[in-house]
Write a structure and sequence with these properties.
Layout: H1 14-46, H2 55-81, H3 108-124, H4 127-166
Helix pairs in contact: 1-2, 1-3, 2-3, 3-4
Length: 179
């Protein structure tokens, strides 16, 4: 296996996959929503940039972060229980999952991640953190997404191609996709 190939999860218990997924989510959130944004805000402070947001803005940011965090947990549940794997490409689901939010949008976890990132930018009142999130969106859309979709097509064939043609990447459907 080359470093850029997906590794399908070995059949194991849902509990173990859930544990691995929880670790992945905690690590992702710690790095991308806490450490890196805090570092960016610290660099802004060193440069003399002052950021602030009101209590009301922080409440909105926290609510947005929590709502999209629940979306991530819901999608992870679908991948663990019905996909028999994890969201991590090194432990990818064995089965193609078109349940829950996946019936409305092709990659709800990416959309949720970016919404959470922008909520963090809002919390800090930092345009630099918002730019960091936007750059992450571009990297995902133009590098990670095409790679992931080629892998899904290779592994799930026509089922994925039909899904890809019917379900948009960034704009949710009004009605659920029925495979």
């Amino acid at each position: 296996m080359r470093w850029f190939e997906t590794r399908v999860a070995v059949t194991t218990s849902s509990a173990l996959n859930a544990f691995k997924t929880a670790l992945q989510i905690l690590a992702f959130w710690a790095v991308f929503y806490a450490l890196l944004p805090t570092g960016i805000v610290w660099l802004e402070a060193l440069a003399g940039v002052t950021n602030s947001s009101s209590v009301a803005v922080k409440v909105v940011a926290a609510l947005v972060f929590a709502a999209f965090g629940l979306l991530a947990l819901s999608c992870s549940y679908q991948l663990v229980v019905h996909g028999i794997g994890t969201p991590l490409p090194l432990d990818a689901p064995q089965h193609f999952v078109v349940r829950g939010a996946y019936r409305y949008i092709r990659n709800p976890m990416a959309l949720g991640s970016f919404a959470q990132g922008f909520a963090v930018a809002l919390w800090h009142g930092s345009i630099s953190v918002a730019i960091y999130v936007y750059i992450g969106c571009l990297i995902w859309n133009y590098i990670a997404r095409p790679w992931e979709e080629r892998d899904l097509e290779r592994r799930f064939g026509m089922a994925f191609l039909k899904y890809q043609n019917a379900v948009r990447c960034w704009i949710p459907r009004v009605s659920p996709y029925k495979p």
